[in-house]
Amino acid sequence: MSTFDSLNDTFDVSAEIVKVEEEPTVKPIKRNKKPLIISDKGEDKEKDYQYARAQIYDIVEKMQESLNGAMEVAQQSDHPRAYEVVFQGAKHTADAVEKLQDLHKKMADVENEQEKAQVNQTQNNIFMSGSTADLLKMLKENK
Known about the structure:
- By secondary structure, the chain is mostly helical.
- The chain has a domain at about 55-115.
- Helices cover about 65% and strands about 0% of the residues.
- The protein has 4 helices and no strands.
- It is flat.
């Protein structure tokens, strides 16, 4: 007699012991992982800049719409908390605009670094055929 026979009689349930076979193991699907290729091309940087710029513009526009709606609610309710929400929204909108300005500055810095890298190339092993007198004469003429 099992421990659940009294419950089975009470609820008029017949219990059968069923042996459960082992479930087949699930094999993980092998996926071909492609290596992440990071490109350092100028046009990729330009695309990233344009994308980031567009996203920030979109965020600022949505925040401005939300701010206008919150301002209407604040004016209608004349509740201090509503005005506080409006001021916080204005602060966040200003922060997004500041991020847009930072993006412009960073892009300008990258362009300046690229220009400096092209200009400040060191030349080694320069050969001059001539005497030291010729070299001194050329140096005096350059001054």
